[in-house]
Amino acid sequence: MQPAMQLKNVNKSIGKKKIIKDLSFEIYPGEVFGFLGPNGAGKTTTIRMMVGLMKISAGDILINGVSVSKNYKQAVRQVGAIVENPEMYPFMSGWKNLKHFARMIPGITDERIKEVIALVGLEKAIHEKVGKYSLGMRQRIGVAQALLHNPSILILDEPTNGLDPAGIREIRQYIRKLAEEENVAVIVSSHLLSEIELMCDRIGIIKNGELVTVEKVADESNEDQDLQVLIEVSPIDTAVKVIEDAFNISASIEENKLAIKTKKEIIPQIIQELVKHQLEIYEVVTNNASLEDKFFEMIGENTIA
Amino acid sequence: MRNFFSLINNEQIKLYSRFSTWSMYIILAGIILASGLITFFFSDGLEEYGDNWREELQAKNEEYLEMQAEDEVFGDLYAYDIAKNEYYLENDIKPLSYDAWQFALENAGLTMLVSLFTIIVAASIVSSEFKWGTIKLLLIRPISRGKILWTKYVNVLIFSISMLIFSFLINLIIGAILFGINGLSPNIVIEGANGFEQVSVVSEILTKYGLNMVNLIIMATFAFMISTLFRNNSMAIGLAIFLMFAGDIIVSFLSKYDWAKFILFANTNLNQYMGNQSPVIDGMTLGFSITVLVVYYIIFLLVSWLSFTRRDVAGH
Hints:
Chain B: GO terms for molecular function: ABC-type transporter activity. Chain B: This is ABC transporter permease. Chain B: The chain crosses the membrane at residues 21-42, 108-132, 153-181, 209-230, 237-255, 286-308. Chain B: Pfam families: ABC2_membrane_2. Chain B: Keywords: Membrane, Transmembrane, Transmembrane helix. The structure holds 2 protein chains of 2 kinds. Chain A is of the alpha/beta class. Chain A folds into 2 domains: 5-216, Rossmann fold; 226-287, ACT domain (Alpha-Beta Plaits), CATH 3.30.70. Chain A contains 10 helices and 14 strands. In chain A, the strands form 3 sheets. Chain A has a 6-stranded mixed sheet with strand order 6-7-8-3-9-10, sandwiched between helices. In chain A, strands 2-1-4-5 form a 4-stranded antiparallel sheet. In chain A, strand 7, helix 6 (165-182) and strand 8 (185-190) form a beta-alpha-beta unit. The longest helix of chain A is centred in the middle third of the chain and has 18 residues, at 165-182. Chain B starts with a helix and ends in a 6-residue tail after the last helix. Chain B is 70% helix and 4% strand. Chain B has a two-stranded antiparallel ribbon. In chain B, strand 1 (187-192) and strand 2 form a beta hairpin. By secondary structure, chain B is mainly alpha-helical. The longest helix of chain B is centred in the middle third of the chain and has 35 residues, at 145-179. In chain B, 31% of the residues are buried. The chains are: A alpha/beta, B mainly alpha. Chain A binds chain B through residues 44, 48, 51-55, 72-74, 76-77, 79, 81, 83-85, 87-92, 96, 100-101, 103-106, 145, and chain B through 2-3, 6-7, 9-10, 13-14, 17-18, 132-134, 136-144, 312-315.
């Protein structure tokens, strides 16, 4: 399958300072790709190079096989983006703003504009001035302008910035919808793992302008991986003993809970074992800690590197 | 081409969606109205001549001659009026009463205000996009940066021309209401390079407005360049307006040097070659000034274009 976007040894220097070093990765149609890194790691710079706002010092970026640096107009035709904040003309209504951007690309009908407005759920406020919009509404109008021309790649720079939990959830839902139903490749940047791991298929971690790793986000069906299981059980000391005796795994106590690292298929057996010994179970929580561990391991606790 | 017109349309919509643009038109109309009312109520040069205008003019000239003889300090001021009246009598032309055309001609100086407003628009049309952050959305469309810059510049020119036409029409309307109008294109008597002559008022108005337009376009292009270069509209507005007003002072300060004739402001006022005026620095000709202006103009546009198309759009 041809990648929707392909970065080939992309470098960016400003003066003598190298701010992006040999970045290479691919994003495929229908995939949500998370671009993760602490503030100042070079996420926005990379995104600016993807859409041609900044020149690539060395290397190239291909969009559906077309080079951004050599054939800009044809390449960027496939891209819709919000770079940093979703800024629009505050003195014009949402509708006028969308009309403005629609006029810049031939073939966008009023029907298409209405379709996009419906998709982001802005029908009610579309004739109000954008200056009066809340941050959440601005994010939506930003997504709407990015989708006007049916791009095959959607780039969203920190789309959850400043949104409340309900807004974040909504953004997450329609990003997934776009990827799954319209086969759009979506690139989402963030400095918070917790915000994007729920919506992404893969996450690329960047630090100091270098790509550290690209990880697949483990879904429920991934049974090979070790899961961290926390069980609130009483009495807890007996439980530790029971587990260590019955299974060949080590158990510890964390915050008054029984903590075990094990595979998903073992969990029912552990619970049965605990029940058999008539221990009282209040809660069983699993979390896939590996990605978060990796993130912190690589980025370090101090995220402002 | 279709694309080009859509972009122009976009820029016009953005410009006229803001109240500040409309307020410029309102201020301009207000000042023209005020100047009309002041002329109407306080000016004493509005007398009309009847059928025996020859006697009236002669009587007036005698009166002027008397006053000239009495007043030693300012007496010479009457010489212009006396000479003009004599021209009327010699050529047997009946003086026209003051009317809308002459009002519009007198107010040609108000193009200075049009320049001021055009500079404000030119200075903010690019930098505002940076200020609002919308430049990022403009530049990620399949349109070359050069084209976007060009449509913005053309939009400034359209604005200045609409404002100039507006100012001219308002002058005519207010003038016609207050002073009446003497036909479609009456001839008036003005002092040209070779003494007094009779010219069509419309051609005189076109010349005056046209010459002021040169200054307007050069200064607007300068503001446009500063705005593209520094991406900051207050700086562009400030610098352009300062130079517009201080330009003459700078030139007169440096006029003892020969190279001063290459300074932009020594050349922007093409009125210096009209009528009986003499150029700021000896030896300058109309052709020379036009050449200097064209060179500056091309440099301004080139700098804007290079800066806009080559530079990265980085964060704030």
